[in-house]
Write a structure and sequence with these properties.
This is IS66 family transposase ISBcen19. The protein has 511 residues and is of the alpha/beta class. It is built from 14 helices and 9 strands. It has a domain at 240-448.
Length: 511
């Protein structure tokens, strides 16, 4: 605590400086209050809309599976908003004894595993021996594929007969405070939904076959709480990616429910990852309600580097903020491939042969050191690329304006500088295939979950999928990774969150 200031000992200049500092502090506090008030108003409105959707009359426009996916998204969204509101509030939310929900006891037939929590010493601070007078037991539900078990956390009560001191081991910290799921069960639900793309209504049936039907509303609440807890890791992963000078970017459409309209609308999942030759193996997905370029500008705000992307106009505005555009040779090749597949175009075939030679060289230099890769590109690939450019220019002068082959040639000629920048930088890949490979799990998921239940649900899915896919890229089992992270998060210092990122993670079991 700062010691009081003797105003009488200050001269006029010092008093003015002190007044300015106090006014600045007041302005900062006022700004924080206005931000919190605005955010609380936004969240309160969003909560009211969600509750109206959840408890109002059901729309006949949704079929049963659509309604199930909408319900699970709403359940998760409501809990996530409650946690955000509690964090913004100066006081934690209190529950009266009357309104406190009563937990249904876990089935007695489930196997129990006792985990003892006792004081480190049975000697009181006064020197007397403590006597065990009882215990508190809390039960947590755990799950391994097909089998439920119950962890019985037994906390003995020890008392000193002389000074009447009561000692008891603290309650183990949990991601969901006072909840029944273990980190293992939560990891199972998350990986099933966002790694294996199993919706919650299907997980409910799977759990029922294992002996305990957990309502999808409960599963949704767990996911909402975990999403809030895991978001700092995704934010840190984004910062780790933006520290690299070569990035990939791509986007893919995802359907998103519009509850008020009773149908879906097109949203997009944007994908960002370090260059294929960068040491960091990670990916961050960013869910947005549109394909507008503002979403890429927001994600990459302040970043200046080289971006591998397609010719989509949404990326063009990034060039003004110091981003260098890198073309994708696979996109250029695809246009000629489509022409050759449809009408056996001889010009398209010749272009494919040229590009094929460039890719053959890339396969040779893939595992080489940067200096060796650059030398071979300069010596061999540069010559082929120059010949391809000269040939394309000649062919473009001969073909009809507006023809399909003219459009294919124009795409490559217009982007030639961006397409060939990789020849002068060994860290730059020839195409965007590395990023497109990270989108494939999303394409698989679309066949299962079909659409996102809400914008918030889409962002939560993008966050968890970022951790799941990044764990895979680093050779980790996503279940083992998330289980360990969820166990450690409650007591892990926020300043050391980087230690839990997939590329730096070391299991606590290995310590």
């Amino acid at each position: 605590m700062n010691s009081p200031i003797d105003l009488n000992s200050l001269n006029a200049d010092q008093l003015r400086e002190l007044a300015a500092q106090l006014m600045m502090q007041v302005a900062e506090k006022d700004g924080e209050i206005r931000f919190k008030d605005t955010r609380i108003a936004q969240l309160t409105h969003e909560m009211a809309v969600l509750k109206r959707l959840k408890f109002a009359a059901r729309s006949e426009k949704f079929d049963s599976e659509q309604q199930s996916l909408l319900d699970e998204a709403i359940d998760a969204d409501i809990v996530a908003i409650e946690h955000e509101l509690e964090a913004l509030s100066s006081r934690p939310k209190a529950q009266s004894a009357e309104n406190k929900p009563r937990r249904t006891p876990l089935p007695a037939n489930l196997p129990r595993i006792d985990i003892a929590h006792e004081p480190e010493s049975s000697t009181c601070t006064c020197g007397c021996e403590l006597k065990r007078i009882g215990e508190d037991v809390s039960e947590k539900l755990d799950y391994t594929p097909g089998v439920f078990t119950v962890e019985r956390h037994v906390r003995g009560k020890w008392v000193c007969a002389k000074c009447e001191t009561l000692i008891q081991a603290p309650v183990p910290a949990q991601v969901i405070d006072k909840g029944i799921p273990t980190a293992g069960l939560l990891a199972q639900v998350l990986v099933s939904k966002y790694g294996d793309h199993v919706p919650l209504y299907r997980q409910e049936r799977i759990f029922e076959r294992a002996g305990l039907a957990i309502p999808r509303s409960t599963l949704g609440q767990w996911i909402g709480q975990c999403g809030v807890q895991l978001q700092p890791l995704v934010d840190a992963l984004r910062q780790a990616i933006l520290a690299h000078r070569v990035l990939h970017a791509d986007e893919t459409p995802v359907a998103m429910l519009s509850p008020g309209k009773g149908k879906t609308q097109r949203a997009y999942l944007w994908t960002y990852c370090p260059g294929a030759f960068e040491e960091l193996k990670a990916v961050v997905y960013d869910f947005a309600e549109s394909r507008a370029g503002e979403h890429a500008r927001s994600f990459l705000s302040g970043w200046q580097g080289q971006l591998v992307c397609d010719d989509y106009a949404g990326y063009k505005a990034l060039l003004a903020q110091g981003v260098t555009e890198l073309g994708c040779m696979a996109h250029a090749r695809r246009k000629f491939f489509d022409l050759h597949a449809s009408n056996k175009s001889e010009i398209a075939q010749a272009a494919l042969e040229y590009i094929g030679q460039l890719y053959e060289i890339e396969r040779e230099v893939q595992a080489l050191k940067p200096g060796e890769r650059l030398a071979i590109r300069q010596e061999r690939a540069r010559r082929i690329a120059d010949a391809l450019h000269q040939w394309m220019t000649q062919q473009r002068a001969r073909v009809s304006e507006g023809s399909a082959i003219a459009k294919a040639l124009d795409y490559s000629l217009r982007r030639w500088v961006a397409l060939t920048r990789y020849l002068d930088d060994p860290q730059v890949p020839i195409d965007n295939n590395w990023c497109e490979n990270q989108i494939r799990p999303v394409a698989l998921g679309r066949k299962n979950w079909l659409f996102s239940g809400s914008l918030r649900a889409g962002k939560r899915a993008a966050a968890v999928m970022s951790l799941v896919q990044s764990a895979k890229l680093n050779g980790h089992d996503p279940y083992a990774y998330l289980k360990d992270v969820l166990m450690r998060l409650p007591t892990h210092a926020a300043s050391r969150v980087d230690e839990l990122l997939p590329h730096r993670w070391q299991s606590s079991n290995s310590n």
